[in-house]
Amino acid sequence: MSTQFYAFGSICRGEVDRSSDIDLLACVSGNAPNIDPAKFSIYQHDRLVALWKEGNPFAWHLHLESRLLYSSAGEDFLASLGVPAPYNGAKEDCKKFARLFAESATQLSATRINSTFNLSCMFLATRNFATCFSLSYGQPIFSRQSPLMISWPLVIDTQTFDVLMRARVLSTRGVGEVLRESEVTQVLEAVPLVSRWMSNLLEKVNA
Q1: 156-174 pLDDT tens trace
Q2: Least confident of 18-27, 114-123, 124-133
Q3: How far apart are CA 119 and CA 142, in angstroms?
Q4: Helices and strands in the chain: count of H runs, count of E runs
Q5: For residue 164, how far is the Cα from the chain centroid?
Q6: Mean pLDDT value across residues 137-145
Q7: Is 131 in contact with 114 (CB distance < 8 Å)?
């Protein structure tokens, strides 16, 4: 079996801080029962080839930001795939993430029972919306702060955006301080602003 290990994500962008984790990818040509899926994102070679042919955003992410750590055959498998196909799904993907943001914001407004989870989903939707938008313009930004960095940035209070990022870390890894009610309210007050930003960008998306 051929196996390659890669690092990708924030460590390859130099965006590491205390809340960062290390994103690791295992590319395998067969079954890999010895590779821990809690530590690695595990992808079969055939699946990666398909993602490259689709122009999938994850393929572009790996193409632009992954770093080879080890190869059993001395081959850089991802490099051998060349440049991914053009990304043509931006319109539908941005609509999907706009819906996720709206649905999570509605749930957050209705109840605080799952406030951290809903805030986490709102962050994920906002970040992925911006990343898909930037990729459609050939200027991909995969950073956690992509909404603040694209050509038409989200103009939002940095403390409000920080609440969303903290919620994501709390929800996915259980790390950080519990969010205060005042911080949840702060985000809810910014919901119309984010929604308008998404609506405006949907009109500009290169499908």
Answers
A1: 999 999 999 999 999 988 8
A2: 18-27
A3: 20
A4: 9, 4
A5: 13
A6: 93
A7: no
Report the C-alpha gap between 118 and 140 in whole angstroms.
Answer: 26
Quote the pLDDT of residue 162. Answer: 96
Reduced to 3 states (helix: H, G, I; strand: E, B; else coil), residue 112 is: coil
- Region at 126 (left for phi over 0; alpha for psi -120 to 50; beta for the rest): alpha
CB 19 within 8 A of CB 175: yes
Tokens matching residue 127: 């970040």
Residue that the structure tokens 């301080």 belong to:
177
Cα–Cα distances in Å, from 15 out to 54, 74, 81, 95? 28, 28, 26, 28
Q: DSSP code of 38?
A: T
Please give the Cα distance from 197 to 202 (Å, whole number). Answer: 9
Q: Provide the pairing of β-strand 41-44 with 23-28.
A: parallel
Q: Is the pLDDT of residue 207 over 80?
A: no
| pTM score | 0.91
- Tokens (6 digits) for 18: 């205390």
For 189, the token pair is: 């007050």
104 three-class SS: helix
Q: Encoding tokens for residue 182?
A: 């005042």
Measured CA to CA, the distance from residue 15 to residue 7 in angstroms comes to 13
How many whole angstroms separate alpha carbon 84 and alpha carbon 132?
15
CA angle 27, 30, 34 (to 5 degrees): 75
